[in-house]
Amino acid sequence: MSVHKEIKRVTTHTLQEFKEKGIKISMLTAYDFSMARIIDTGGLDVILVGDSASNVMAGHETTLPITLEQMIYHAASVVRGVTRALVVVDLPFGYYQGNSRLALESAIRIMKEAGAHAVKLEGGGEIRESVERILTAGIPVMGHLGLTPQSIYKFGTYTVRAKEEIEAKKLLEDALLLQKSGCFAIVLEKIPAKLATAVSKELLIPTIGIGAGGGTDGQVLVSHDMLGITKEFKPRFLRRYLNLAEQIENAVKQYVDDVKSKNFPNKDEQY
Description:
Blueprint: H1 2-6, H2 12-21, E1 25-29, H3 33-41, E2 46-49, H4 53-56, H5 68-79, E3 86-90, H6 100-114, E4 118-120, H7 128-136, E5 141-146, H8 152-155, H9 165-181, E6 185-189, H10 193-202, E7 207-210, E8 218-221, H11 223-226, H12 244-260
Parallel strand pairs: 1-2, 1-8, 2-3, 3-4, 4-5, 5-6, 6-7, 7-8
Helix pairs in contact: 3-5, 5-6, 6-7
């Protein structure tokens, strides 16, 4: 724990040092000021303002509908609540694929309007030009390989990726390409643990896994899943640390009962 307390502000350089020293990187999502402040105080290294906001905050089935403006709103809210963690923001679907100029403009808006510290893009070789163009502006880029939720309609399923040798080989090639392009870290989502470990050993930059086993340099989960706010999502890789949905429901029921029975407010709870 002492190593975490010593760090005033986590940077991309800090994460590189963590990899070299064998210190695991902790990462969770946040989408609003209050949650960001709580999890930042908990000593987290990286906060991801994920396009998963599309699912957990807006109720969409996929991450595709969320806009750049909405991501900037969520990111700005998170940044205001954070004093320690590195804040990474997802570039949403449609704002970087196949158009490196748009990718740069989108990344600049996120950094300028939200005050974020880095952006994250999904994909390998096909987004290389966008990654390199964003980096020309001095904006740090985190990569994302394996299961890439923005490509859900291409895959047709959220199942484990890169089980076959051809896809596994391409994933390693893409990881090395992203590293060469200048990415400071790569998220590996839902790939076999053996492959994730091999990729992590091959790369000089840190890897952060989700459903990719313990051989990566760090772990990320969606905070709403980890805290048990969402109940439907139950993949094998998810560890629930709380059951907040039930606790909040019970608290609301108690409040309703207290209001109906005139128990709340009592004499001490009024002016």
